[in-house]
């Protein structure tokens, strides 16, 4: 299995840690007072403390759903997706509720989106056929 790593600026380390561990269910790896690693379903996100930052991003439309151009996410198995969706939807964390894409075609999947305390949009998705993640 291959894992991804991404490093992102972070406004508030403690709020970010609480969000990812208590809300998402991720765990913290190595850390210092200036950064921390989050284990997000086996992938490493390093959040680095910084001052105020701003990024503007345009949105785009995919099958009538407006999506943020700047986002990251994780493809999950159906059972994990359903459990996480139920937990987050019950607490009103959804930024974009479940949307289905490519229905009846190769790559059919559904997704939901949330925002973390830094303003990052995270997509969680599940494919109808797991082997079709990269098929066109």
3D structure, described in words:
With 136 residues, this protein is an alpha+beta fold. 18% of the residues lie in helices and 43% in strands. The chain is built from 2 helices and 10 strands, in the order βαββββββαβββ. It has helices at residues 13-24, 78-90, and strands spanning 5-10, 27-31, 35-40, 43-49, 59-62, 65-68, 72-75, 94-101, 109-115, 121-127. The strands form 3 sheets. Strands 1-4-3-2 form a 4-stranded mixed beta sheet, covered by helices on one side. Strands 7-10-9-8 form a 4-stranded mixed beta sheet, with helices on one face. A hairpin with a 2-residue loop joins strand 3 and strand 4. It is globular, with a radius of gyration of 15 Å. The relative contact order is 0.17.
Please report which band the strand proportion falls in: under 5%, 5-15%, 15-25%, 25-35%, 35-45% or over 45%: 35-45%
Helical stretch tally = 2
Q: What characteristic shape results from the CA principal axes?
A: globular
Largest sheet: 4 strands, mixed
Low-confidence stretches: none
What is the typical, i.e. mean, pLDDT? 91
Distance between the termini: 22 Å
CATH topology value of the largest domain: 2,3-Dihydroxybiphenyl 1,2-Dioxygenase, domain 1
CATH homologous superfamily of the largest domain? 2,3-Dihydroxybiphenyl 1,2-Dioxygenase, domain 1
Instruction: Please count the beta strands (DSSP E, at least 2 residues each).
Output: 10
> Helix share of residues?
10-25%
Task: Give the strand line-up of the largest sheet.
Answer: 1-4-3-2
CATH architecture of the largest domain: Roll
Structural category:
alpha+beta
**Any idea what the radius of gyration is?**
15 Å
CATH level 1 class label of the largest domain: Alpha Beta
Integer count of domains: 2
């Amino acid at each position: 299995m291959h894992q991804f790593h991404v490093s992102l600026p972070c406004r508030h380390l403690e709020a970010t840690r609480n969000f990812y561990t208590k809300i998402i269910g991720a765990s913290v790896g190595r850390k210092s007072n200036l950064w921390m690693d989050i284990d997000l379903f086996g992938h490493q996100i390093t959040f680095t403390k910084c001052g105020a930052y701003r990024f503007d991003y345009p949105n785009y439309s995919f099958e009538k759903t407006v999506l943020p151009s700047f986002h990251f996410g994780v493809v999950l198995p159906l059972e994990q997706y359903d459990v996480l969706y139920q937990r987050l939807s019950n607490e009103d964390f959804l930024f974009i509720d479940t949307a289905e894409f490519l229905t009846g075609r190769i790559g059919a999947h559904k997704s939901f989106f949330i925002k973390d305390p830094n303003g990052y949009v995270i997509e969680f998705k599940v494919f109808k056929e797991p082997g079709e993640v990269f098929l066109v």
